[in-house]
Amino acid sequence: MASDVFLFIFTVLFLNTLIGGVGVLSFLFVKKNLSRIAFILMSFSAGTLLGGAFFHLLLHSLEEGHAPLDEILLSTLFGFLVFFIFENYLHFHRCVECKIHPYTYLILIGDGLHNIFDGIVVATTFIISIPLGVATSIAVLLHEVPQELGIFGAMIHAGQDKTKSIIYPMLAQSTSLLGGVLGYVFFSSIEQYAPIFLPFVAGGFMYIASADLIPEIHKSEKWQKIEGILALFLGLAFMWVLKGVEG
Fold it and tell me: 20 to 30 A Cα–Cα from 12, which one of 2, 176, 180, 199?
């Protein structure tokens, strides 16, 4: 039975890793308007990051009720500041002469941390009940598809080449396998840190969206700006709808 559960966990998280390269399916035959599509997906990513932070990560922490509100808020602020300091310490922010904007690496770091927790959640729910694990896995996979598409678009928009824009998100997704192992081995004690860990990731997502992605919308031309704003709200709306599906 234990081996069957581990096989379920590994299979789901391996599929979750492959989703990191889903952008290639959309862009494989795209030759024209790539920069425009990348801008729209970058804006969509800003919406999914904000929606993921507010509608999922923070709400989950609050609903669990295992941490006081002030600790959740402090953890969120700490995550925001850590991403801010990390970016500025490496002289990444608003690098005019850089061909590739390094905020893409911050997105991958935040996504990797988030995927560790996803792996923990998938593993622990499968241990409790296989049907519960299957339902949770579907929610996780649905959650990742739009976000990974947005990350692909954000990386292309920032100047990264298509190959790395496919491979790097897959590497970030692979951290879910680490989370799965942790959840499988230590599931009885590891979830107690979720109410603090999730707000930290949420704070990082807020920083990336507000400091790096949304300013790109501000700098765009009139009609492109409208497209960006609509894409941002579409990303928010999708994450809100997904919240209802997960519920």
Answer: 199
Report domain extents, the chain.
Answer: 2-13+37-246
Distance CA 77, CA 189 (A): 25
- Residues 162-220 have pLDDT tens digits of 777 778 888 888 898 998 988 888 765 555 666 777 788 889 889 988 988 899 899 88
CA angle 82, 181, 196 (to 5 degrees): 35
Report the C-alpha gap between 31 and 76 in whole angstroms: 40
pTM (2 d.p.): 0.66
CA pair distance 80, 84, nearest whole angstrom: 6
CB count in 10 Å sphere of residue 129:
12
Q: HEC profile for 51-91?
A: HHHHHHHHHHHHHHCCCCHHHHHHHHHHHHHHHHHHHHHCC
Spatial CA neighbour of 103 closest among 173, 21, 46, 31: 46
In tens, the pLDDT along 111-142 reads 788 788 788 878 877 876 677 677 667 667 76
